[in-house]
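Re: beginner question about structure tokens

> Can someone show what the tokenized structure looks like for a real chain? I only ever see the sequence side.

Sure, here's an example I had lying around. Input first:
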Amino acid sequence: MILTIYFSHKGETYFPDGIKNVDKGNTEIAAEYIHKAVGGDLFEIETVKPYSGEYRKCCAEAKSEADANARPEIKNLPDSISRYNTIFVCYPNWCGTTPMCILSFLDKYDLSGKKIVQTEIIPLCTNEGSGMGNSERDLKNLYPTATFAEGLSVRGHQARESEESIAEWAKKHVL
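And the corresponding structure tokens:
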């Protein structure tokens, strides 16, 4: 069974031509493309205390959490993820790695033997072009009992036009 989890920032977002306000974050769009391509269940990670919709304030919040190695509280966590053997983990590149709320989710479950597939959606932070950053290495170090597949880096400003490449990548990990 497949689970696609994602955290996506709505509000002001960095694009190459400036900061723009978005109702649907780039990561959410990519996660929906994965779900459409491979099925399974889709789960949005939402923090109890929402991040600021203002870009610079959100960046400061993300940095503060990363510096503190914080685990912000998540709303409506599933009781279990034991029935899933493949988990797509979709997140923006924040502070060169995974947002702390992704770790809040993953810390709650036994990931032993789970195949974790990551999708890095880039510029929901200041990293329009920084790729996966350290996120793959960091996740592998934090969750050594999980099996990781090669991640995918998608430039955030291109997420809406990337359905075909995201779907092709997702399918090769489950079919």
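Each token stands for a local structural state, so reading them left to right follows the chain. The two ends are 12 Å apart (CA to CA).
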